[in-house]
Write a structure and sequence with these properties.
This protein has 379 residues and is an alpha/beta fold. It is built from 12 helices and 14 strands. It folds into 2 domains: 13-30 and 277-374, Alpha-Beta Complex (Aspartate Aminotransferase, domain 1), CATH 3.90.1150; 40-275, Type I PLP-dependent aspartate aminotransferase-like (Major domain) (Aspartate Aminotransferase, domain 2), CATH 3.40.640. It has helices spanning 13-16, 37-47, 59-73, 88-99, 113-121, 142-150, 172-185, 244-254, 263-275, 277-298, 325-332, 357-374; strands at 24-25, 82-85, 104-109, 125-133, 138-140, 154-160, 188-192, 219-223, 237-240, 304-306, 314-319, 335-336, 338-339, 349-352. An 8-stranded mixed β-sheet has the order 2-9-8-7-6-3-4-5, sandwiched between helices. Strands 10-11-14-13 form a 4-stranded antiparallel β-sheet, with helices on one face. The protein has a two-stranded parallel ribbon with strand order 1-12. α2 (37-47) runs antiparallel to α9, α4 (88-99) crosses α8 and α10 runs parallel beside α12 (357-374). The longest helix is centred in the C-terminal third of the chain and has 22 residues, at 277-298. The model has no long low-confidence stretch (mean pLDDT 97). The chain binds pyridoxal-5'-phosphate (PLP). Pyridoxal-5'-phosphate (PLP) binds next to α4.
Length: 379
Amino acid sequence: MFDFIDRRNTHAIKLEKYRDQPLMPMWVADMDLATAPCVSKALQSRMEHQVYGYTHPWPSLNQSVVNWCQQEYDWSIEADWIVWLPGVVPSFNLAIQAFAKGGRVITQEPNYPPLRAAAKLRGCTPVALPVTFNGATWQWDWQQLEQELAHPECHLIITCNPMNPHGTVLSPADMARLGALCEQYQVVLCSDEIHCDLRLDASSVHTPAGLVDTLAARSLTLMAASKTFNVAGLGCSFAIIPDNALRQHFRHCGHDLVPHPNFLGYFAAEAAFTQGRPWLSDLLGHLRGNQHRVAEVINGLSGLRYRPQAATFLAWIESDFGPGEALRYFNEAGIMPSDGKDFGDPCSVRLNFGTDRATLEQALTQLSDYWRQNRPEVS
Ligand SMILES: Cc1ncc(COP(=O)(O)O)c(C=O)c1O
């Protein structure tokens, strides 16, 4: 079911960016796999209509999100809380515009490049909160976080949960603690949860920000079908904002500035959230198998370290090499991962294993052969 789809001649960013280099593209976060059949079918049926005009979200679409949140996260939301948007990146940028008051904006580090860039782009002061491995999981320093939240110019924190690039899911206890701090210091939380459905560690529990009592009045939870169902090109996501005043202000700030989502994204989302669960369960099984192979091979290569993450199809591979060296070795082995430098750590790389097993095995074989022949040394 999860066969490789040849993406040549589709103008896919993944292939285009390095088109002149003979490298296997394993970087940007989309998959080389077909979306769920129920999603393709919904899109095909809408395309057949041949009129593609302005389209508003409709009640059964909103209901599909309501049901998904209930079923997946035990989170009872109201349809009115949903704000449809053309992507998660514009959503967190808009959140800065709406709530940061030109002040300090906290984000994790390392982090997804547009999350690192957003505060500065919107004229605010970025505050990068280091996230490090504490022997069990990736965590920030709570004392440091509290100091930053207490700063009189801090009105907004943007979290990435599950984290990109580490793939860590913040525990329910972490979320409760974060919520209490945000309440104490009257800080709004914008939570990028685009990867939350892709939980590979079945024992991990994802807690949407708005589900936490103390955060209901001060949070935006950003979600989408885009990563889960591999429809990122359709430009469609949503924010769940339980608080009426917060939601109205957010909407007002985006009015006539942020475009409507692509209407096809609505159709994909409704099909995905109403009929896509069995396919998603199969996909997670496939990705778990891929992850297992990545861990087996990468952890056998000197100087590299991969701690299998709880969520996402992205392997964050740390190295003992100097800045840029791991990336160079991967490139020399014929593989193009994401450069860790863009996430804030030039010694690491991020490998996208959202592909079929044969392609992954090919990449892992190339890496093993390269390591055997060249024996990269830690200086
Ligand atoms: C954490 C995170 N947020 C947002 C996005 C992109 O969101 P969108 O395409 O909806 O703007 C990505 C894509 O990789 C991501 O990893």
